């Protein structure tokens, strides 16, 4: 007969014991402190405002050198602009008066500095004279242009449209003005998570605790991130990515601790809060550290835009860890009696012993482990194969919703001036006039270029710029091939003749440079993330094979998620707009998914390890470990899937890719890997799964997730 005894703390309680113990002893004060922190950072961030800045610099690349040259030799010109694109089915000559009236109205709108006349501006009228564009120059930088004023420009210009005469507005400001302010994705994810938690616990109060914990953690982090943006370079897209990860991780961490609390409560533990924090709480802290390591691994890439995101999401994970071991224990103390009644009432209604279904699944897998192992690995490999053909790029209006005016303007310009008009290559020459003329002639003779502009000399006379319009669209692979050919063959040969220096820049070139930079530094990134995570797992589970298995399976789940993203967003499956994958999405998904996959690895294997230490029977340990964690892992995964999947509702293509990639990875990881492949592997390894050479045994520090 097993007698439950309270967990005895060590002679000097660890930090987790001291922090969570204080929160339980002073539950009201702990909750009040969280409320005050949330209110304070929210108020401060509202007053101060954000200083988000997108840092797309790529030191050492040709595209960055082009940008640096313009900053050094061109006069500062920070004012923004939009484009008015008009098309007349019968030709624009008959609608000159209408066009002039439209331009006159737009000139009088707020922040409009000037409007070019498409009939007199060089190259603004298509050869068939049915399409033209007018550049609207603004008197403020893009970051200072009010969204409502951009929308006013769009509305007043489109007032002149009529059948046979189309008016659209293009440019980055027009793209952003048409996007919603967000919030629907987060709300839908939280609501779906609440439904899952109610079904799991049978109590609205019990279901609310993990949600409250996550909301407090994420809400506080949003304010802190706004304040941190004044000290560090934080891209503007960090907040939605941070909320995406924070809600999923925050709910999951609180859920896993609460589930262990519920399990110990039904077992009759003297203080289930202490046991839950001493077991699941330790796992949460360790799992959070693996996520932090994976995110900080992005710093090894040395890319400014990703470093800000990594720091922001790392702060989110740290805040969710803190909330899980302070706010949740306080809530369990304050609402303990009511929660205990609801938990016991829900348990009494259950007709089956908890975990029976998972024991049966583990038994089926253990009786024939090779079949599920081989089929599962083949499925992951098959899903990963499309990722080998992934093309990276930056979103432009060509990947927008076809109903948006910015997308319609993009299409009109492509139709009237050629597909490459929306993404010209910026080629600069540092040399004399002869070198500049030779550049223009060489580019004009290239079979992949439709047209080139006359050479433009900077005011100081040191640099010449030529715009080359490809025959292919900016997002086409042919345009990337053209950039590569110019850099590798055409321009080096020209340099040897003229002695000048030629550089290719522009959006397509920048995307290619970003992909090359990531590819060059990716081995270091993977080595840092996988190596440190494997060492941590080795120290915790005193095993060589467990970390090796975890690393291989995590890489397979990441590959499968990237393969699905490629099929949907690059190949256009399920009606998605086909185009390249956002250049920084794969590495961000790698870091986040690797960390989250380690979460499930820790939650499952720590319980299996706990049972193995108790019974020394590998098969029993796997069955009982899966029985006690299977439903929790499934529920946690379901919550993450609905939170991440809700971001498919976002109008932002980047967030859609994040949402689909993370949801797919969690689905495969929780259901296929943790519940099928891992039990099969551990069945084949048997007691050898916990083997550690004596040399490593002596060197590795001990990190205990279970108390002796």
UniProtKB/TrEMBL annotation:
Signal peptide: none annotated. Keywords: Cell membrane, Membrane, Transmembrane, Transmembrane helix. Residues 211-334 form the SSD domain. One of its GO terms (cellular component) is plasma membrane. InterPro entries: MMPL_dom, Mycobact_MmpL, SSD. The chain crosses the membrane at residues 188-207, 214-233, 239-258, 279-303, 309-335, 369-388, 522-541, 553-571, 583-605, 626-648, 660-685. Its main location: membrane. It is found in: Cell membrane. It is a multi-pass membrane protein. Pfam families: MMPL. This is RND superfamily putative drug exporter. It comes from Kribbella shirazensis.
């Amino acid at each position: 007969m097993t007698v439950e005894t309270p967990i005895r703390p060590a002679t000097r309680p660890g930090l987790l014991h001291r922090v969570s113990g204080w929160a339980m002893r002073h539950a009201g004060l702990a909750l009040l402190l969280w409320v005050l922190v949330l209110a304070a950072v929210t108020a401060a961030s509202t007053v101060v405002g954000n200083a988000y800045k997108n840092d797309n610099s790529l030191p050492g690349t040709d595209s960055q050198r082009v940008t640096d040259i313009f900053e050094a030799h061109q006069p500062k010109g920070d004012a923004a602009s939009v484009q008015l694109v008009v098309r007349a089915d019968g030709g624009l000559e008959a609608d000159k008066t209408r066009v002039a009236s439209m331009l006159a109205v737009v000139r009088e709108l707020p922040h409009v500095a000037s409007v070019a006349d498409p009939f007199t501006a060089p190259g603004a009228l298509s050869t068939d004279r049915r399409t033209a564009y007018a550049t609207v120059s603004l008197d403020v930088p893009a970051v200072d242009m009010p969204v409502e004023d951009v929308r006013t420009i769009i509305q007043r210009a489109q007032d002149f449209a009529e059948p046979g005469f189309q008016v659209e507005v293009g440019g980055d400001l027009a793209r952003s003005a048409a996007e919603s302010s967000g919030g629907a994705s987060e709300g839908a994810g939280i609501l779906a998570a609440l439904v899952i938690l109610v079904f799991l616990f049978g109590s609205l109060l019990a279901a609310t605790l993990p949600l409250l914990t996550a909301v407090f953690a994420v809400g506080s982090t949003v304010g802190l991130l706004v304040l941190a943006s004044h000290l560090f370079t934080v891209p503007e897209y960090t907040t939605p990515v941070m909320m995406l990860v924070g809600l999923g991780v925050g709910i999951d961490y609180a859920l896993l601790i609460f589930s262990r609390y519920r399990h110990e409560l039904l077992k009759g533990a003297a203080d289930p809060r202490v046991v839950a924090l001493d077991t699941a709480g330790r796992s949460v802290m360790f799992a959070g550290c693996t996520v932090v390591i994976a995110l900080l691994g992005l710093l090894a890439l040395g890319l400014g835009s990703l470093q800000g995101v990594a720091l922001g999401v790392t702060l989110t994970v740290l805040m969710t860890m803190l909330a899980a071991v302070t706010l949740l224990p306080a809530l369990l103390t304050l609402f303990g009696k009511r929660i205990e009644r609801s938990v016991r009432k829900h348990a009494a209604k259950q007709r089956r012993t908890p975990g029976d279904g998972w024991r049966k699944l583990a038994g089926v897998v253990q009786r024939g482990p090779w079949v599920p192992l081989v089929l599962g690995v083949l499925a992951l490999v098959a899903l990963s194969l499309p990722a080998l053909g992934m093309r990276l790029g930056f979103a432009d209006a060509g990947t927008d919703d076809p109903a948006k005016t910015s997308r319609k303007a993009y299409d009109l310009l492509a139709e009237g001036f050629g597909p490459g008009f929306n993404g010209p290559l910026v080629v600069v020459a540092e040399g004399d006039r002869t070198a500049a003329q030779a550049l223009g002639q060489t580019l004009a003779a290239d079979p992949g270029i439709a047209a080139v502009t006359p050479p433009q000399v900077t005011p100081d006379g040191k640099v010449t710029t030529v715009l080359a319009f490809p025959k292919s669209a900016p997002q086409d692979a042919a345009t990337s091939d053209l950039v590569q050919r110019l850099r590798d063959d055409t321009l080096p040969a020209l340099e040897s003749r003229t002695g000048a220096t030629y550089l290719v820049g522009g959006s397509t070139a920048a995307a290619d440079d970003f992909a090359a930079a990531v590819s060059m530094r990716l081995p270091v990134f993977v080595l840092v993330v996988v190596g440190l995570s494997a060492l941590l797992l080795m120290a915790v589970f005193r095993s060589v094979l467990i970390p090796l298995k975890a690393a291989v399976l995590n890489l397979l789940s990441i590959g499968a998620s990237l393969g699905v993203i490629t099929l949907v967003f690059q190949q256009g499956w399920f009606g998605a707009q086909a185009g390249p994958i956002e250049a920084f999405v794969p590495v961000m998904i790698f870091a986040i998914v690797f960390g989250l996959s380690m979460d499930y690895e820790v939650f499952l294997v720590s319980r299996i390890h706990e049972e193995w230490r108790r019974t020394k029977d590998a098969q029993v340990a796997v069955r009982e470990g899966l029985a006690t964690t299977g439903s929790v892992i499934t529920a946690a995964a379901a919550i993450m899937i609905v939170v991440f999947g809700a971001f498919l509702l976002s109008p932002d293509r980047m967030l859609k890719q994040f949402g689909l990639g993370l949801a797919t990875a969690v689905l495969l990881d929780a259901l296929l890997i943790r519940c099928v492949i891992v039990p099969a592997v551990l069945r084949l390894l048997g007691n050898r799964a916990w083997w550690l050479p004596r040399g490593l045994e002596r060197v590795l520090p001990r990190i205990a997730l279970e108390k002796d």
